[in-house]
Design brief:
Elements: H1 3-11, H2 18-35, H3 51-54, E1 58-63, H4 79-93, E2 97-100, H5 109-118, H6 122-139, H7 155-169, E3 171-174, E4 179-182, H8 183-192, H9 208-216, E5 221-231, E6 236-238, E7 257-266, H10 272-277, H11 286-296, E8 298-308, E9 315-319, E10 330-333, H12 340-343, H13 354-357, H14 363-374, H15 379-383, E11 392-399, E12 406-411, E13 423-426, H16 432-441, E14 470-471, E15 474-475, H17 481-494, E16 498-504, E17 509-510, E18 523-525, E19 531-533, H18 571-574, E20 575-579, E21 586-591, H19 605-610, H20 621-628, E22 641-644, H21 652-665, E23 678-680, E24 684-690, E25 696-697, E26 703-705, E27 708-711, E28 714-721, H22 733-739, H23 742-751, E29 759-760, H24 767-778, H25 798-816, H26 820-837, H27 843-853, H28 858-867, H29 884-887, E30 892-898, E31 901-908, H30 914-923, H31 925-931, E32 938-942, E33 946-950
Parallel strand pairs: 1-2, 1-22, 10-12, 22-23, 24-29, 30-33
Antiparallel strand pairs: 3-4, 5-6, 5-7, 7-17, 8-9, 8-11, 8-16, 10-13, 11-12, 14-15, 18-19, 18-21, 20-21, 24-25, 24-28, 26-27, 27-28, 30-31, 32-33
Helix pairs in contact: 2-28, 5-6, 22-23, 23-24, 25-26, 25-27, 27-28
């Protein structure tokens, strides 16, 4: 401590300093915790409480909950948490019963990787990280209802994750009813014959395994042999959303390959239409809605069957342009398409072009080599490789159903198994990719839409009349596209070789992971390999101990490998004898050894916040209805405000919406959607300093000079990027709290700019908000004596009174609209007005000012409120209300222009009418003199600030 600082503190021992802030903040955090200040009562159940509070309007405010990293928080992490806390505190003070809490999304790969590296059980390291994060979050003064906090790794929590999985597993989607129904109802319909078994067999004649095979085609959660993203370097499969654009794993950056494996899937595609249509009623950013619509990818067209020469099973395609069928001159199967294995002949057909064979002796050799080559590419790579199309002839021919022409069937990776049927009819005349492929393999081109005159050398994808499109009983020539589509679909449907249909880009959700640290599936298999669900009484199925936490990993570049899970090594847990209560008695079973993905626990956590201690139900219906049920303006129900990053647009948000809809269909919840209002906060960025090798150096040790930036004497380059430990630029909230206090940190993060915009961190700028709090403190407390200095019984002057009510009006709108930076600016302006005015601040001004800043800087506000003579917490005090008469100025200046030049300025009432203002302006002596004899052609009035006279 310097001599100057010491002298100042001696002269002003009650100054607001970091030490005083720490004392105030600790005391009030202890008070809030002991008093349960932020405990939100439920209408019923274990958390039922204050009936008067429950009678208020409710507000359910949520953050996307964090993964508990061992590194703890840096100042970028709590941006959204502070924002929701400010909003929640504001809502409490405006008469709402507010539910605001925070849990931890604690399953996942980082803890498992740490366990592999150190031998520490993932639960031990995860719980330690949770404890540290709770300590850091408490220090920020976040007003969470701690009774409701959850962690996805707690068995009492994941019991219900498993329970929801079983609800989905034991359900099917009834397209006629457009909702999910219990699988038992489908079984009953098969049994009584009211619904035929798809292959025409009698249900009673089917074995248990055969029945389960039929039901697997309907269940919303099902296991299937399907193409997946296999990552040998991680030893697990990944969902499409977990693979980067360049075909590598999001975690670890390992190569990802296509492989056919038996995995669990969620039939999210059954909800594709509802997932799109229900977006309209949600208060979400349009950019997020667009991302979801594009990801789901709804398109209308037709399903068409092409007979394969010499085979019974046709190739089925989906096309959005059935009107172009006459121009289909070849077909393409995705390398993963199951028909590839059946249509390939033993030898090349006579006359096969050398360019079509890939140099292989037989079609089988050519296809196998090409499949291996394609497996190393991501879907994005396969779609964006430009004009260099690759492929190989399968040796098979299909028949164009409209003209009977035999057309070759190719295998090419520009067609994806994940879209449509994994097969296309190629019409090079109307599709650019097909044109490029046709050019590479010397395939014919038939145009079916008339291009503009002179158009040649490329596909034409625009509008125009049909050409070259007629057979004996279908003539499309001359028709526009829409009518040609309609007639083609009708022709196909009459002959039973196609139908109009809707297709989606969205694929079913791959739900298996070959990891240890995740929720076990409540599924066992009998001796026939048939899956059976565990009864609810056996939940939770807890994770067993294993000696090795790591899935078996392989050479990252070796695609010819298969998963081996950690759970499979615990034979005592895997092989069990159980009575499942199905009347078959005790039998031997083998447990599922995959685990659920880390997204599972976050698909429903908003519901557990509502009723966290309920051991009998997922959630009490009355409690769910109270907090999340539909109401006016919110027809789908859901959380009132959900704040988090935009990066979760097509992962967590889409999955959570799917689970919510299933639970709604089955009658477990009243809310169709989980989150009514979504707000995406920006990112706090930080400067990264790199040495001559490009390596980051500690940002805190960099010196800024006139000629650049230097670290240990060497010049370094500065760039703006993420904040993090690896970039050596992380600033922890603990550091800022120690130097300035938590309220200063809260104010600085909220004042940096609009909440939805990314902004750079600058530790040197934090002091600005610290000084605001010091000036606020001095306006209420004497720094020398510690006594309150506000003046009782003294009325403020009119200018101060108007300044207060304008601030109240502005801050009220800003806090409601999440415009925290402008709210702080208005409070700062009012506080500065009081500082410049000098003398004791009237109590009638000081108390509203303290209440205004309370949501933003709650600790100092509580302390000042107490010193002003109030008891208890101000958390539920009434937020100030502006007097409309004092918000508007008594008079405003109106500019009068003639031909765009200012000729007069008038002081007029803010509410003056247009006609009255026009008369005043035309009668003003200066305006009369300026007009002279000129005739007035037009008067444009913009009351109360502008009159423009045109002569």
């Amino acid at each position: 401590m310097s001599e100057t600082t010491s002298a100042a503190e001696t002269a002003a021992p009650h100054r607001y300093t970091a030490a005083l802030a720490a004392d105030i903040e600790n005391r009030w955090q202890d008070f809030w915790e002991a008093d349960q200040t932020f405990a939100a009562p439920n209408p019923t159940g274990d958390l039922a409480g204050d009936e008067a509070l429950v009678a208020r309007p409710k507000a359910f405010v949520m953050d996307m909950f964090p993964y508990p990293s061992g590194a703890g928080l840096h100042v970028g992490h709590p941006l959204g948490y502070i924002a929701t806390d400010v909003f929640a505190r504001y809502r409490r003070m405006t008469g709402h019963n507010v539910l605001h809490t925070l849990g931890f999304d604690a399953f996942g790969l980082p803890a498992e990787q740490h366990a592999v590296a150190t031998g520490t059980h993932p639960r031990v390291s995860t719980e330690a990280a949770i404890d540290n994060m709770r300590r850091q979050l408490r220090r920020l003064g976040l007003g969470h209802d701690k009774r409701r906090s959850v962690a996805t790794i707690d068995p009492d929590y994941y019991k219900w994750t498993q329970w929801i999985f079983l609800q989905i597993y034991n359900s099917w989607y009834d397209e006629q009813a457009d909702r999910a129904r219990p699988i038992a109802e489908l079984i009953a319909a098969f049994a009584d014959g009211s619904r035929p078994v798809p292959d025409g067999r009698d249900w009673a004649s089917l074995s248990t395994a055969e029945r389960e095979a039929v039901l697997g085609g309907y269940r919303l959660a099902y296991a299937s042999q399907s193409p997946v993203n296999w990552c040998p370097g991680l030893g697990t499969v990944l969902a499409n959303e977990e693979v980067t654009a360049d075909g590598r794993s999001e975690r670890g950056n390992f190569p990802v390959f296509k492989a056919n494996l038996r995995q669990w899937n969620m039939r999210i595609t059954a909800y594709a239409d509802r997932l799109i249509s229900d977006l309209d009623a949600l208060d979400w950013p349009e950019a997020i809605k667009l991302q979801q619509r594009n990801w789901i990818g709804r398109s209308e067209g037709a399903r068409v069957d092409f007979a394969v020469d010499g085979h019974d099973e046709p190739i089925t395609v989906f096309t959005t342009r059935p009107d172009t069928l006459f121009g289909a001159t070849y077909m393409v199967l995705a390398p993963e398409h199951p028909l590839v294995d059946t249509v390939v002949p033993a030898a090349w057909p006579e006359g096969t072009k050398q360019a079509w064979t890939g140099g292989a002796a037989t079609p089988a050799e050519a296809v196998e080599a090409y499949r291996k080559q394609a497996s190393s590419k991501s879907d994005v790579e396969r779609q964006t490789e430009g004009k260099n199309k690759t492929g190989v002839f399968s040796g098979a021919y299909a028949v164009n159903p409209l003209n009977g022409v035999k057309i070759p069937v190719f295998v090419a990776d520009y067609v994806l198994m994940g879209y449509g049927t994994g097969a296309i009819m190629a019409v090079p005349g109307q599709d650019e990719r097909d044109w490029e492929f046709a050019a590479a393999f010397e395939l014919p081109v038939i145009r079916t839409v008339q291009p503009p005159q002179g158009w040649e050398g490329e596909a034409y994808t625009g509008q125009g009349p049909a050409i070259n499109s007629a057979n004996d009983d279908l003539d499309l020539n001359g028709l526009e596209i829409a009518e040609a589509k309609r007639r083609t679909i009708a022709w196909l449907e009459q002959r039973g070789i196609g139908e109009g249909t809707v297709n989606f880009r969205l694929r079913d959700w791959l739900f298996s992971r070959q990891r240890y640290w995740g929720e076990p599936f409540p599924i066992v298999y009998d001796e026939d390999g048939t899956a059976h669900a565990l009864p609810e009484s056996m939940l939770p199925l807890e994770l067993p101990e294993v000696e090795d936490y790591s899935p078996r990993t392989f050479d990252p570049d070796d695609a010819n490998t298969e998963p081996e899970t950690p759970l499979s090594r615990n034979e005592d847990w895997v092989n069990v004898e159980l009575d499942l209560g199905d009347g078959r008695g005790v039998r031997a079973y083998r447990r599922e050894t995959n685990t659920m993905p880390n997204w599972a626990g976050s698909c429903w956590y908003e519901l557990r916040y509502l009723d966290p201690h309920n051991s009998e139900k997922l959630v009490d219906p009355g409690i769910e209805q109270y907090w999340m049920g539909p109401r006016e303006g919110r027809p789908h129900g859901g959380v009132d405000l959900y704040v988090g990053g935009a990066e979760h647009a097509v992962l967590h948000l889409l999955y959570a919406r799917f689970w919510s809809k299933v639970l709604f269909d089955l009658g477990h919840v009243s809310s169709v959607e989980p989150f009514h209002k979504l707000f995406n906060q920006g990112m706090i960025q930080a400067y990264v300093y790199r040495d001559s090798r490009g390596f980051p150096v500690p940002a805190a040790e960099v010196e800024e000079r006139e000629d650049g930036y230097f670290w240990q004497g060497q010049a370094v380059k500065r760039e703006l990027g993420k904040m993090g430990k690896s970039l050596k630029n992380a600033v922890t909230p603990d550091e800022i709290c120690a130097e300035y206090g938590a309220d200063t940190l809260r104010l600085y993060e909220m004042a940096m700019g609009p909440l939805d915009v990314s902004r750079p961190w600058d530790t040197r700028a934090v002091v600005g908000q610290y000084r605001l709090l010091q000036r606020l403190w001095r306006n209420v407390v004497d720094e020398a004596t510690g006594e309150v200095t506000v003046a009782d019984g003294v009325e403020p002057d009119e200018a101060t009174l108007r300044a207060l009510h304008k601030t109240i009006d502005g801050v009220t709108g800003d806090l409601a609209g999440l415009r925290f930076n402008t709210a702080i600016a208005k409070i700062t302006e009012l506080n500065n007005h009081l500082t410049k005015a000098g003398g004791p601040v009237p109590r009638s001004i000081a108390e509203p000012l303290v209440l205004l800043i309370a949501p933003l800087a709650p600790h100092i506000a509580e302390e000042l409120w107490r010193r002003l003579g109030h008891t208890g917490s101000l958390a539920h005090a009434d937020f100030p209300v502006a007097d409309p008469a004092l918000v508007q100025d008594e008079a405003v200046v109106c500019v009068v222009q003639i031909k765009g030049k200012v000729k007069a300025r008038l002081e007029v009432p803010p509410a003056i009418a247009d006609a009255e203002l026009e008369a005043l302006a035309l009668g003003d002596p200066a305006v009369v003199a300026a007009l002279g004899d000129a005739a007035v052609r037009k008067v444009i009035v913009r009351a109360p600030k502008l009159v423009n006279i045109v002569t």
